[in-house]
Amino acid sequence: MKVYTKTGDTGTTSLVGGKRVPKDCARLESYGTIDELNAQVGLLLTYVSEPVDRETLIGIQNNLFVIGAQLATEAPQVPSVIITSVDVTKLEQSIDAASEGLPKWRGFTLPGGCRPAALAHVCRTICRRAERRILTLNSSEEVAPELLAYVNRLSDYFYILALRLNFLQGTEEILWHK
User: Fold this and answer.
1) Rounded Cα distance, 134 and 31, in Å
2) CA–CA gap between residue 100 and residue 19 (Å, rounded)
């Protein structure tokens, strides 16, 4: 199997359905950043040992593939799987579960701590960038509100996961102060 097609050598690529678009268009920027986030989640997984956290992260990776497919598909086509309100609710439940037992919030924390928590913070910031790219796309082409909600909640999940990972490893959060 050859992975190179040479069809992108001139700076264009195909969307789902075959339409050629520039590689720097808003749609590609959005799903490219989702792809980057998915790769970073894969790296984070190499440092996470708690089964519940691993299961949640693998579920997120699967949903990131779904989001990528949605973003790579122009209307009127619809991908075979999409992010739904059920996915958003499940992610909210994961946030709530990851929050259980954590110390009371004491203020903004500096990104870092133990290595897994630091990587979760990197995922959080890439997720925020992906959200901005998707909102740019949404300003010209409608993006499903459930997809927008999911990506917004996802950055919250990575923040809570970072707190949880530091807590589980006994690493003190460094509070921001001026």
Assistant:
1) 8
2) 46
List of residues 6+ apart from 150 with CB closer than 8 A: 63, 67, 83, 87, 88, 91
Give tens-digit pLDDT for 9-60.
777 767 677 677 767 779 899 999 999 999 999 999 999 999 999 999 999 9
Q: Is 119 exposed, middle or buried (0-12, 13-18, 19+ CB in 10 A)?
A: buried
- Retrieve residue 58's tokens: 């693998």
| pTM for this predicted structure | 0.92
* Buried-exposed string 83-116: b where 16+ CB fall within 10 A, e elsewhere: beeebbebbeebbeebeeeeeeeeeebebebbeb
3-state secondary structure 54-116: HHHHHHHHHHHHHHHHHHCECCCCCCCCCCCHHHHHHHHHHHHHHHCCCCCCCCCECCCCCHH
